[in-house]
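Input:
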Amino acid sequence: MEKKLEKQLSEEFKNMVDKNNPQSSIIKDCIFAFVIGGLICDVGQFFMNMFLSLGVPQENVGYYVATVMVFLGAFLTGLGIYDNVAKYAGAGTIVPITGFANSIVSPAMEFKREGYILGVGARMFIIAGPVLVYGISSSVIVGIIYYFIKYFAK
Amino acid sequence: MAVKKIGTQTIKLKNPPSILETATITGSKEGEGPLGQYFDVILSDDLYGEESWEKAESKMTREAVKLAINKANLHPDNIDYMFSGDLLNQIISSSFAARELQIPFFGLYGACSTMTESLSLSSMIIDGGYADYVIAATSSHFASAERQYRFPLEYGGQRPPTSQWTVTGAGAALLSSSGNGPYITYVTTGRVMDFGVKDANNMGAAMAPAAADTILRHFKDTGFNPNDYDIIITGDLGKVGKELAVELVKKGGYDISNIYTDCGVEIFDLSEQDVHSGASGCGCSAVVFCGYLYKQLKAGRFKRILLISTGALLSPTSSQQGESIPGIAHAVAIERSV
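Output:
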């Protein structure tokens, strides 16, 4: 195209792209996320009730449930099921702790072919890494703020 | 003096090379698509009996090249040059295939524009009298592209509606200085165009300006207009990019909407196969051309076509550093007879 037309079109192009852009259906996505995410929470609740009825103390039951849910997330990822559910569920499968398991197990599986050190070991946290870095960092900052508030509130 | 160059970006080949044979190998999803009947080999196993996706992709390139040569009753020793490229870092699919084939090799990187880039260079080297038999090939693989550009396969993420599905496929075309056609007659080489699209999930939009620019430049340089073609087909703009390309070309003064389509729209059934905006990848225009279009030309159902493979020249690094996505598109005109 000619220089003049090119300049004109490059300015108009952003509007053309925005106009042509198909949008995700937010309502449909939210319903799927709510239902599937809710079902995952129900499973968690089921195990929590089960452990409580087996006599696990209230303050420790969270560890038991998290362990089971991480196992389930990892197991379903290994079977190739988790990503097929996540295609519909979106945030419904990312937010629960099963999504965290998926984000670690999926690169571990994918990069096994590059060996256990530079493949699995080095790349296991490519998705979960940022969550860990900023999750742990912010918990430290919140902890410091909490300490000072407690200190001055005395 | 450049006696064969016409206009600013086009070459009119004086001794148009003939496409003797083509070969295509695709994955199962492509085989189930609307063009499945035109592919030579449809793999039931996307690993192709190999240990990794990369090895599988390289084997697809190698076997497609061998198949094209076999169909013409030739041997790799008869081939003067091979032009090939792919999407993987350091174009390992192509160069590792060339390691086995032992054909003098030029490795190309044009992202998904590689099919017409390799056809362009192959045509010129034959027209120039440097070779009698040349292979133009390229490949892409959904799984090897995902792990390099996006996420591990089993990661549970959602893809936006503008995203495209990388074709698992390899195509090879064998060009010769003699033969009964179809012939490559014009080559229009694209410029890198960037209208500022930054969304790596909307590569159709990023590449549409390059496609439109090359189409307009081809018309201007050759004096042809859309009516001179039976079909004008871009590489992998998908549904979103295709609409943008039609609009841009229209603003440039040509209406191509009646005879224009995109390989990325044709290869999959967009409503059934869960590919969102359509297909992408080097293999997309490679298998659609080497499979469907070549066979239609051979059968005389198309007399003259314009194939414009389109490439998005981004890398994960450039995207992370906030760069917009440059696009490129190369066009070749292919005619049943000259």
